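Sequence, please.
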């Protein structure tokens, strides 16, 4: 039976550690500040943004949300980002994704100053992370998965990590982090056009799934002892749940838990780590600004 990798508990420990760092910065006259830009009224995005600013405030950081209408123009959004780029009390800026279809998300992300890009989505940070430069802001979900593996003593050296999904914000940066000197994993990336997906997933010592499709990975697709990291966030209608839905990941948790050696739950696995690493990146941004 797999042990459960508890992202909520790891986050609790990490946030307590970071609260001390925030207090030290404050004593030196700097209060780390994060500004989150939310466009429109997507309920999931509203919830994630609220969690981010709440988490900042709980640590003694400044957390601010700027909500813009669904039909905001690119120019108006750029003007908001310009203002935040120029504001010295704002150390980190992020634009919550997904954006409405009329907004060119790559251009929007590139408009954030790389020194304030705490999501790590700007090409400058993607490039720095790719070459292993410590000044890079590493995207929060991949950084959270690496931190979770490290804190849970899950070795990666010499292991075959199979990633399902090829996104810019999770899978590509994660592959680069895992194959770097130190983690030293052998990485395979698969995606929707990979033929016979199961023939790859069955080879995985560590299987990371980031697709957004409930039950994509079933028990027959994994080998005994595998470590499973489920990045999926899928809402499933459930009239008996308090919110009328419950969250599930991309893997069939109940069927795979008896076979695996370790597995992340949804909720309470990778999700909380994403927000914790955003706090860490905001702290890093404030420290780097202080040093300039
Ligand atoms: N600008 C960004 N946009 C998005 C990112 C991101 O990193 N930067 N990632 C996702 C959404 N996301 C953060 O923004 C995120 C998703 C889920 C969770 C989380 O903690 N989920 C909970 C369950 C939530 C629930 O019950 O409703 C969990 O897994 O325990 C945190 C952050 C896309 N957009």
């Amino acid at each position: 039976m797999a042990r459960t990798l508890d992202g909520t508990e790891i986050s609790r420990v990490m946030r307590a550690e970071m609260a001390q760092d925030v207090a030290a910065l404050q004593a030196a006259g700097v209060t780390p500040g994060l500004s989150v830009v939310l466009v429109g009224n997507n309920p999931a995005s509203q919830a994630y943004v609220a969690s981010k600013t709440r988490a900042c405030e709980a640590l003694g950081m400044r957390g601010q949300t700027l909500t813009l209408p669904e039909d905001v123009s690119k120019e108006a959004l750029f003007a908001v980002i310009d203002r935040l780029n120029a504001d010295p009390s704002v150390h980190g800026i992020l634009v919550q994704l997904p954006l409405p279809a009329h907004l060119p998300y790559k251009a929007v992300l590139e408009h954030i100053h790389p020194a304030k890009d705490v999501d790590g989505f700007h090409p400058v940070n993607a490039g720095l992370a790719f070459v292993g430069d410590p000044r890079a802001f590493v995207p929060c979900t991949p950084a959270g998965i690496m931190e979770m593996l490290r804190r849970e003593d899950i070795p990666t050296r010499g292991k075959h990590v199979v990633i399902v999904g090829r996104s810019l914000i999770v899978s590509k940066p994660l592959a680069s982090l895992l194959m770097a000197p130190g983690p030293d994993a052998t990485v395979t990336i698969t995606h929707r056009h990979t033929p016979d997906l199961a023939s790859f997933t069955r080879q995985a010592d560590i299987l990371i799934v980031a697709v957004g499709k409930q039950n994509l990975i079933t028990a027959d697709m994994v080998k005994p002892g595998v470590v499973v990291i489920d990045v999926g966030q899928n809402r499933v209608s459930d009239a008996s749940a308090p919110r009328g839905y419950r969250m599930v990941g991309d893997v069939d948790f109940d069927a795979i838990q008896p076979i695996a050696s370790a597995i992340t739950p949804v909720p309470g696995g990778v999700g909380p780590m994403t927000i914790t690493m955003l706090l860490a990146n905001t702290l890093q941004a404030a420290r780097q600004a202080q040093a300039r």
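The chain has a mean pLDDT of 97.
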